[in-house]
Write a structure and sequence with these properties.
The chain is α+β, with helices and mostly antiparallel strands and 368 residues long. The protein has two domains: 156 residues, no CATH class; 162 residues, 2-Layer Sandwich (Heat Shock Protein 90), CATH 3.30.565.10. 64% of the residues lie in helices and 10% in strands. It has a five-stranded mixed beta sheet with strand order 1-2-3-5-4, covered by helices on one side. Helix 1 crosses helix 3, helix 3 packs antiparallel against helix 4 and helix 8 packs parallel to helix 10. The longest helix is centred in the middle third of the chain and has 81 residues. It starts with 7 loop residues before the first helix and ends with a strand.
Length: 368
Amino acid sequence: MAASNDSPDGARRSVVGRMLRELNHGSVGWAIGLAFTVAVALNPIFVTPFAVLLGRTLFVALVLVLVFHGMAQWPQRWLPHWMPLWLAQTLAVVLAAPLATFVVYLVATSGNVSSFVGNPYRVSGFLWIAGCALGVGVVVALGALVRERDAQARTQALQFELERGRLERQALDARLAVLTAQIEPHFLFNTLANVQALVESGSPRAAPVLKSLIAYLRAAIPRLQEGGMPELRSELERVRAYLDLMQLRMPDRLQVRIDVTEPALLALRFPPMALLTLVENAVRHGIDPSEEGGTIEIGGRFDVASRRVRLWVADTGVGLHGPTTGGTGLDNARQRLRGVYGADARIELGGNPPQGVRAEIEFTAPAP
């Protein structure tokens, strides 16, 4: 049965596996380059051939790389509580430099310690190689630790930024859901009030209007409950259904023109009920109070190069009387548009000469 990662053997295998993954081409390349540099620098004072000297420095350098990366994977619980991991890595390099050099000279003397100690040239060579390995190894190790800390700090900062962005998106989605929930009953109660007025007046149109309202609700309410942001074409379908309902209520006083046909515009994501709020205002405050009625025109244009979108609802009703900022419904729609498209999204009301009101929505669509 294979040892699990919780057992000592499994833990050791895990450490070795992580250490081998840490040995990338960069660290090995640095080790070889530094070993070659040290061998070139020491060659004038050594009597041994350069190839032998290079072999010794290469061995020591690779041992130091293995020790450094091995200590990086060492579990913190295996270290004294007062010793941070970076200090353990540095001390490991300090101890490994003379030990690796000593192993090199033991191999050169076939394990004869007396032959090594009794030869002043070998002792001098040991001190030179061990000293260079110690100095260069500590400097490189500390530099690598600093770079690693910087990389960890950047990674942590990026993770914090991603998490903050995720939380901001969640907060925005929740805010948009609340605003949409506020608009839906507002619209439905207004429509039901229109039906009630027809019923109370005994109008023969009450029954077909109520039937159209039921059909509209069956089509619209499931869409309002759907997750995500629907396309503009879905909003236009709701607008058409609403205007069909209003034309049943006042067939002689309401004409409609809709000119939103660009495929790229229809495919844009658009907050539900935002355009319908403008249309409803045009009916309630523009066409309904007018004895002659009027026309509602809905249009839209999309500049693909700048990603700028312009939608408008213009009516030939009674016109503006008072502030041009609109009421709660328009404020709600403005907030939802800005929540989706940013601070430059706007809804503005103005006159529609010779008579009526023109409401415009402008925003910059995000890149696909």
